[in-house]
Amino acid sequence: MKIALLFFTMFFLLAGCSKEEELPIETFEFIAPAHFPPVEYDLAQNPITKKGFELGKKLFMDGKLSGNGSISCASCHISTSGFTQHGHALSHGIFGRLTRRNSMPIQNLAWSKNFMWDGGVFHLDLFPPAPISNPNEMQETVANVLLKLKQDDQYPQLFKDAFGEDEITTDLFLKALSQFQLMCISANSPYDKYVKGEESLSADAMEGKALFDSKCSTCHEGVLQTDQSFRNNGLAIGNPTDKGRALITGNEEDNFKFRVPSLRNWQFTYPYMHDGRFRTIDEVLEHYNSGVVTSATLDTLLQNGIPLSATEREKLKAFLETLNDEGFINNPLTEVF
């Protein structure tokens, strides 16, 4: 299957039709990369269209989603930073308030089973109300957002064009945002080209891949570079009130477990970890080499850390470089600011 983010196909009606009918019909298609696992999101419930995607992108960049108009989704998810808020340990929300965690990248969400560092949201369509209503992020309500959209000069017609409905509803608002995010697909890194048999990796990268496969791939699994599990990776406790997955499950066995993030596009998404404590990949590797803190919920795979020699680190970094997808970062179709 040909890999692409977006396909525009023009269909023309047969020659005996009227001039109005001869206008081209644009279809907008979600195409899953052939080397990816099955999609988790039910696209049949929210078919992606050109108008729906464009509406979702406009909403994603609109400050109307926040209480004072200053914060959009794109404020914390900047495309050139891998859809993260570049450089900040903790994301900055409305009135410059610090959020609880570092913003996660938006990529390959069609394959996600849950969302946020703690997995507190189980469906992409249900994600936006979390940041919208958070007092440190956007400090607004979905009801107020809808009211502002209904009173806007453009949005009523844009929603009608996208969904054929006269009323702007919560359901359509959330589906439009999902349509944009679903099309943020990263699938053309050097590693992807290697997996597809299109390119070879350097000798150093191949040695690094062997190290990665033996020491890292259990958690950072497959082409998505995550098994989507929640694990305590041995970080010293920073914010003691942020117990990660346990805040959702209420189970002490989940204390300080956080979602395993994808390593895709790591070069653009620093700082790293849920609280952004590490600014460089070398700091991350040193943590696993010598900084893992033992605790009751530490993942068993990390009981002895991940010791690496200086040479092994360089080989591993050579492989990690192949996970960066420049085309995704610089794709004008999904560019937001």
**What strand order characterises the main sheet?**
1-2
In N-to-C order, the SSE pattern is EEHHHHHHHHEHEHHH
Question: Which consecutive residue ranges, at least 5 long each, have pLDDT under 50?
Answer: 1-25
Number of strands: 4
- Relative strand content: under 5%
Mean of residue pLDDT?
A: 91
Helical percent range? 25-40%
The SS-based structural class is mainly alpha
Q: What would you say about this model in short?
A:
With 337 residues, the protein is mainly alpha-helical.
How would you describe this structure to a colleague?
30% of the residues lie in helices and 4% in strands. The chain is mainly α and 337 residues long. It has 2 domains: 7-186, Cytochrome c-like domain (Cytochrome Bc1 Complex, Chain D, domain 2, Orthogonal Bundle); 190-327, Cytochrome c-like domain (Cytochrome Bc1 Complex, Chain D, domain 2, Orthogonal Bundle), CATH 1.10.760.10. A two-stranded antiparallel ribbon has the order 1-2. Strands 3-4 form a two-stranded antiparallel sheet. α8 (203-215) packs across α11 (310-320). Residues 1-25 have low confidence and may be disordered.
Write out key terms for the chains shown.
337 residues; mainly alpha; Cytochrome Bc1 Complex, Chain D, domain 2; two-stranded antiparallel ribbon; 12 helices; globular
How is the topology of this model organized?
Blueprint (H helix, E strand, L loop, with lengths): L6 E5 L13 E5 L20 H11 L12 H4 L52 H5 L8 H10 L3 H9 L6 H13 L7 H6 L7 H13 L14 E2 L14 H4 L8 E2 L21 H11 L18 H11 L5 H4 L8
Antiparallel strand pairs: 1-2, 3-4
